[in-house]
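Handout, section 4.2: multi-component inputs.
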Amino acid sequence: MEFHFEVLKTDPSGARLGRLTTPHGVVDTPAFMPVGTAGTVKGMTQEALEDLNVGLLLSNTYHLYLRPGHELIARMGGLHRFMSWRGGILTDSGGFQVFSLADLRKVSDEGVRFRSHLDGSEHFLTPEKAIEIQRALGSDIGMVLDECIECPASRERTQEASVRTVEWARRCKAAIDAGRPSEANPGQVFFGIVQGGAYQDLRRENAEKLVELDFPGYAIGGLAVGEPHEVSREIAAATAAHLPQDRPRYVMGVSKPEQLADYVRCGVDMMDCVLPTRNARNGYLYTRQGPLHIKNATYAQDSRPVDESCGCMVCRRYSRAYLSHLFRANEILGAILNTHHNLYFYLDMMRAIREAIALGGLSQFCSELQARLEAGRPE
Amino acid sequence: MEFHFEVLKTDPSGARLGRLTTPHGVVDTPAFMPVGTAGTVKGMTQEALEDLNVGLLLSNTYHLYLRPGHELIARMGGLHRFMSWRGGILTDSGGFQVFSLADLRKVSDEGVRFRSHLDGSEHFLTPEKAIEIQRALGSDIGMVLDECIECPASRERTQEASVRTVEWARRCKAAIDAGRPSEANPGQVFFGIVQGGAYQDLRRENAEKLVELDFPGYAIGGLAVGEPHEVSREIAAATAAHLPQDRPRYVMGVSKPEQLADYVRCGVDMMDCVLPTRNARNGYLYTRQGPLHIKNATYAQDSRPVDESCGCMVCRRYSRAYLSHLFRANEILGAILNTHHNLYFYLDMMRAIREAIALGGLSQFCSELQARLEAGRPE
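Output:
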């Protein structure tokens, strides 16, 4: 299968129902991608991800580059084969991870010099190198290298990063056009990433320049880096407006479950976020009535499932009391079951959002969601 | 279903093929019981245990008593319901765990005073209390409280512990007969435990006294506490010889996979051991050619499964290279997959042993196993 994207329906709210095809299958959009940082979604088997109908997951170039190394993965036949994952994989370029290293990095026009968080060894990531690594990994969708910065940031700093991001995208594009395709996955494509902080004119300028480079899809980067949700949503909407209708739009690193629909209404087709998996390991579970901290004493003797209206494997079988015990005893099964539930919750939310778009009622869906959340926290 | 045990066939080697019925199902014997210390087999979901056809698992009275507490579990409807486990559960009495606390305990004729390994709180475990806790848990098979000691130990010390073990078994029996059955599991039974260290005459005396008390099954305790395998096997055989033919015999805490058949040839019907699960978490994996340390550099680029002749879910899908990466990256999935493989290996070994008994060839099976292990380590 070749990379292909199709918008099937556009909602009055701006939301799009679509279908994304990669060399590893078809996914319905808007889609949520679970994060599998180091070639595994923490706490999940690949079998369990398949049971949850995960069609596309995200993995991290930065982490895989450092360990076990992209060359090793290439020798093992690429990331799909290495981790035995039949579905799609999107790899980020490492830009965000390097950004989050803070004191361990130094950015220049040439690239980013950084120290490994694992052993302190020094590395130099350039746009060309980011493409090379991702080709070795053989993901279905790779990302160009961008300079992701904090938000808020001064206009000057934001502009500098935006200009650099465009220049790096140009160099990535040249590397993509010049080099040999991924051996493991010749149908791999690369998305551009729009930066520009919270400045709508910079976002516009950045988007227009990237669109000139003609990528098969565009990410809206530099969100979920500290700004309020309102700002994030406005920026996502303003940026999406400057991106071509026929290409998938991906907001990186978002969001809380009740905010997913907000991004979808901005015309966003793809999202990824560590919240469901990371929160799960911290005992923070999602329910249709709001979050539940499994470590709270009140759940230690609660024989009900996490969410009585949830159809997941965990809620069908295990009680809050048992999950509470597993969490306190720091048992692996706690992480496994919590993660399964939270991912199911996110994916089910996305399924409901797609259904609402299909039925033409995403705005109503959002109002109902809001009302339900305001009505009650889980007891 | 009521507790019931039936010997279907006895092998010339002394091995028995049998069928054990508890209120939670029927298991073929000889049976291996995975260890689920704190109400969970570390790294396994209950669904995965069912997939592996686990019919009986072991859980620890000591751990559950301390956390989350037996009374809480009783209020939640017993251990089966608490952990959502439909199969059988055997609970040990806490004797072995208290033994392993070493400096944190003080044994008297009355019982054992010990400090919690979790918070240092002081507790007093008596034979009567051990029965009370296990009734609250509602396991299918409980164990009487015994005094487990190190091996080798002086004859004097061993005799003292043996006498105390018989006296405690008597008190347990009185408590069982006098008290109310488990509310969660009225069909619960309790096994006696034979002690006597490495002294065959003490073992015999101990066994005879316990048999007088008429338990529905007998454990051979005090093995796997430091003695060589040869000694362990001799003691198991010598002790089993003094136990009734029509009752199940359970050797506690054994063994390495290649030694399972040795115990079976002693006429043993049940075993439990932490090795497959604990070793898995340390990256020590079993294969038909001997153990494999997944952290060895040689496996980092090895695309073969852990054991090419293994039919488990892990070997059908994942490579040594991937498991090596997961182990190095300390990923939860590493523990999950390693545990699954090792448990499959043990359970499959037991299945092969039962098959060999059914076909009348356990001695031949043992010779072949030995030859295969001597022939080669995995590359």
